[in-house]
Design goal:
The protein has 220 residues and is an alpha+beta fold.
Length: 220
Amino acid sequence: MADEVVLLDFWPSTFGTRVRIALVEKGVEYQFVEESLQDKSPLLLQMNPIHKKIPVLIHNGKPICESLLIVQYIDETWKNGKAPPLLPSDPYQRAQARFWADYIDNKIYSCIGGIMRSSKGEEEQEKFKKEFIEGLKVMEGELGEKPYFGGDNFGFLDVSFLPFYSWFYTLEKLAMNLSVEGECPKLIAWAKRCLQKESVAKSLSDPLKIYDFVLQMSKK
């Protein structure tokens, strides 16, 4: 019997995008179910009763929550040879990939939220903008001269970080004098390299669409 795979998601979500990239990368066919953050479906509340958040992957009726855990689950479940493993086989390298993914969620994501919430407060926004660029430079240092964060192969940390690229344009519009490419050219080159992959091109949200979404939300 074929696997039944359903993804409860919201299209602008960076966290949902991680899951979409991983599923396509592994060649997994799935049903996408668009959720509303304002009017959460009974299915979402049933499948993620603790946090009540997307994304949720439902595999043969069983839910898996939290994007990084979902990506790891996908990597471990679908070992079909169509794509190399996302996580390294070496335990130390695997731990390092998880460490940096956690850094992204706790440092980069929190700064993005700070910039967007403080778009009308110049002093506070400058603080978050400085921390955001510092965080990106740390990630650029971790990338180094490698084509991907894991080395020669596209992997877990690339999947974890790449969805934020879609939000850079919006952040540059909201935060005065912010140029991600000017500050971190290697990161932008890495993102463009990743965009050549089918799994990324199919899954990543259009930056202009993200910006329009943010503008519409701000009006509400």
